[in-house]
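Fig. S4 source data, part A: sequence.
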Amino acid sequence: SSSSSSSSSSSSPSSPVQEAFESRRVHAFFYLWYGTPEVDGQWQHWNHEVLPHWDASKRTRFPSMIRFNPPEDVHSPFYPMRGCYSSRNRSVITQQLQELKENGIGVVVLSWSGRPDLPGTHDTQGIRTDDLIELVLDVAQNVDMKVSLHLEPYENRTAFSVREDLVYLAEKFSTHPAMFRMPSTDLPLYYVYDSYRVPVSEWIQVLRPNRPQTIRGTSADGCVVGLWLDSHHGHELVDSGFDGAYTYFASDGFTFGSSVANWRSMSKFSLERNFLFIPSVGPGYDDSKIRPWNRENQKPRRDGAYYDKMWQSAVAGQPEFVSITSYNEWGEGTQIEPAVPKAVDLEHALDETTRAQLGLESSYESYEPHDPFFYLNRTAYWSAFFVEQDYAPFHHVKHEKPTHPHLQEL
């Protein structure tokens, strides 16, 4: 890495959690779409709208297009200890990255919505994140955190538009010292969400070497990992020329890829093909406030037992990296960021009829009986455990530069 850890002196032995942090093997998906009237001129995401079901026959069962009413009534089943914050607030970002670092996470994976000059490059709430990446990179450099990017889908995305995205990202951010680079190749790491929506025949043109439009060997090259959703996506990602796969969803059983029972075979498949497999672990899943029709995919946290099970399954496969879904995706209830118990002040909330139709509770879920830092603490425990295991580093076929420089056996 381009900068050595600033927080540990070379004379004192570092703790297992510090070792985990310095290994850069634990990554957390990190969202930058939160806004407040004071900082951003309006609420962003805390007032997320209730999304309609895509099937017209089911759409009428719940009211939709209604917005939540922060700061009392937010779009998440949990309430943040920090209150409703803005992702543009430098001191908040500093605290958040410091918090991750102290719990063994060495890379934050920032959700990137696309090039700002393209129409439709924003999320469902109209939020763009491109202009926030620089701020996070600068803060990351100060706290010795590394940054990777999560390429989100946008209207009319193709493999060729993603190629232009990678050219843009390389020009704009790749020389920043806080960008995470693969130890074996020195290339930046990109996670590509919903990669399966672009045909293999297109990806081949961009991700396989010796094609007129390839990124390989150009300044836009990177370690590019796609989403392994259904069972056949493993073969498709390999055929496409991706360098690896991740599973994203924190809902065990929701997709083939997010089902921990499949991770062993997925890991074996990947190992045999010099392909990076990055399982994604999460503490639970609950998006019932923004998608009230999706309750069957809820995953209760079970006082941390759910998170422990996902971590245990991930570590068993001895992957090079583990990704966490998520640090702060509050709307899907996957966050490990500190949450506090709180009653909803019904005077400043959605009206009673709407609350009844949406099945809303009068108080937020919390991490009790544990404290607000419980999931960060579990992350520290598992990160340290993960990095202490023996493991065979991933070697990319295209490069001969073995082993992590900083992974000595503990």
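Fig. S4 source data, part B ends here. The radius of gyration is 21 Å.
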